[in-house]
Fold:
Amino acid sequence: MDFTKLARKYQTPLYVYDFDYIRERFDSVKEAFRARKSLVCYALKANSNLSVLKHLATLGAGCDCVSAGEVKRALLAGVAKYKIIFSGVGKDDGEIEFALKEDILMLNIESEAELKRVEKIAENLKVTARISIRVNPDVDAKTHPYISTGLKKNKFGVDINTAKKLYIYCKNSPFLEPIGIHCHIGSQILDIAPYRDATAVTAELLRSLKALEIDIKFFDVGGGVGIRYKDEVTIEPYNFAQAVLANLSGTDVTIVCELGRFLVGNSGYLLTKVLYEKHNGERRFVIVDAAMNDLIRPSLYDAYHEIEAVDKNGGGTLADVVGPICESGDFLAKDVILPPLEHGDLLVVKSAGAYGFSMSSNYNSRLRAAEVAVESGKERLIRRREEFEDLVRLETEYLEGADEENR
Ligand SMILES: *Cc1c(COP(=O)(O)O)cnc(C)c1O
Structure:
């Protein structure tokens, strides 16, 4: 990929996504589940750009959404409504109503209170809500505490006994149709054992529901398959599928998975230009034009992203790569080896395709970066760079006493 050309054409900071890579990743997962009926969903919170969604929808992906806004994005991008799942612990009435009216595949329920709410709203709308229940299997995904979701102490899902009780409740309600079992144990998981353990728990539930004549059609194993940021040994899709399927022999369910990071993480690059170099005592700082508002993962999770100087020879000295934001937590990398750099030199931050732009903000009134897709050697803009007017549009009309000229 010609980063220099892209940076010249679209300026920096700039997100670039390799759409061919996304296709390969999607196909590899689909292939791994070939022996079964499967629905490979994309967890769109990882990167919700409409063109990314459309690309995945064209490949056949479904979508796992966690807000009405995400459901709307999926629909807008052309994802079939019967492939859309709505998860999340805190859906409000408006979101539930919207999802029921749109008739998406299912709502993924995370508590008894939510189930009752969905029932009530479905009754008002005179529809039957297709639901799955998110089971918290109490297994340790051994990942960062902020992205671990499958432990009793996390806010997600319900324990196995509560789940069973809720399925029985659904069976007796004319407004609820339980069609799925769901579980998602965390993110950036690098070991298949937690998947095997979690599906063992949910597969047992599946069998006991069958005995109660509750017919579950979708077995959703969640997402969370990790990627290589540095030197991690990751899970192959085939092994992921095998771990999941190991507990499902003799069942006739459609396997659903919801991968975010795995599909898009390594497809993305954040291009940024060097503004200044400075030394404070012993420490060398490379100040660049991208910041924590563009990529918050290093600040938020202490995440590592490989950073390389484009068109420079290797070697160099240790440096912290920091942004212009007025926070000491504003860094993209600490203690990386970089060659001597000058104003205008280009750096590339790798593996920035997931939880990069989608977690970006306008903090410090910074304009969000443009996004570009590269496919079959051709690039195209998929989100234009924000302008100052975008930033203040929702405020200017409320500005008292400002003369027209300045609006
Ligand atoms: C975030 C999330 C995912 C995707 O996680 P990744 O680590 O990006 O694969 C899948 N399912 C649910 C319910 C999620 O909240």
User: Anything to note?
Assistant: Residues 149 and 156 are 6 Å apart (CA to CA). Residues 19-264 form a domain with the TIM Barrel fold (CATH 3.20.20.10). The chain has two domains: 3-13+266-385, 19-264. DSSP finds twelve helices and 17 strands in the chain.
